[in-house]
Amino acid sequence: MPQINRQGTVRFGDAALYISEEGLGGSWEERTAWGKKFKREVFARIIQQLNRIGWTVGPWDEADQYKIIANNHRTCSKGEHLHALLDLSGRCIRLEMWQSANTPTRPDHKGRYESNKEAVAPYLLRLEMERTRRRIRDYLCNVFIGYTFEEQSPGRGSRRRGLKPPTAMEYLNGCYSESWHFKGDWQAYRDANSSPGLSSCFNSNRKSADGKLLEHGQPVYFFDRKGRAQTGIAHYNINNMWWVVSGKYAVTNEASFELYVDNPGDLRCKRNKSLRRKRLESELNAAVARMDYRRAEVLRDLIWPPGEPVFCLWHTEHKLYHCAGFSGYAAEQMDAGKFTRAELQGWAKAPNQIVALGKRPD
Question: Keywords of this protein's UniProt record, alphabetized (predicted)?
């Protein structure tokens, strides 16, 4: 039964839980007192609930670096692959969860910065994340009289995962209903952009990878994040971005230059050169870290031609190395991306500096 009178809203995000309240008005002393009470009554209760359902909650990992805000952050984990960050900022609390078992595009930071955390999470880990935030939501809404759960519409901010996710077309219709740019009426949109001053921009936003002009609702070919050929129906989104519906629930957001009107050919061949390179370099770094030099030698010869010198790329402003594919940064040379001279063309200029393996930057 509710016992505490607080007004607030609970929302779900992508593997995340958000709590927000109103009440930061008044003098500095009043705001400070309100913040302390908010932390004591809500933030502390969330920590208590996490401990009850098997999570380990401890000090923030970055507390030494950001001491002034460390007391409002907690690092959480459950098992080997499930991680979370609980933080309080003003009148808002956020519980952000992620997993390190499957990180196809962002293996750095244990997968924290994957763009679609729920979509890439293994089934059981996704269920555990869902269970965690539902338990906390139910607890808060029962304890606090004025707490409500804000359901998400099937539009742009909705979750694409869950027990009853919206279908692809429901999701698109929700996006169009919320959009100020395109409402789903292709003919009206074409007419509005048919003037000489707008037509060139309009046509460039629908130019496909094979140089054709895309039409709203037409079949297209594209390649997913793993480089596998897919087919679907293209629906216009905004600028040069297009929704592609490839199943009852499957919808992705692709740029026009990633779509093909005609068959691109060799559909059984993956276009995953960049992803392959990142994975091989990751395996190479792991082999070196555990001193498995025979495996490291095999992987090295798979990545670069034998005898080809390789280098790291140091960012002089960030004081960090570029990772493989020039995506992200690493503090240690062992975790950094390795590149040939040819691959570094165009990057060998300020604020970057080419560094030979085993050497330190200037």
Answer: DNA damage, DNA excision, DNA repair, Excision nuclease
DSSP symbol at 327: -
Distances (CA, A) of 280 to 107, 276, 297, 318, 322: 12, 6, 12, 25, 16
| β-pairing verdict for 320-322 and 56-59 | unpaired
Give the pair of three-digit tokens for residue 243.
């929704």
Name the phi and psi angles at 139, rounded to 5. -65, -50
Structure-block tokens of residue 179: 């959009």
DSSP single-letter state for residue 153 = P
The CA distance from 168 to 157, in Å, is 14
Does this model's pTM top 0.70?
Answer: no
For 286-342, write each residue's pLDDT tens digit.
Answer: 999 899 999 999 999 999 988 889 999 999 999 999 998 898 899 999 889 999 999
pLDDT tens digits, one per residue of 241-260: 999 999 998 999 999 999 99
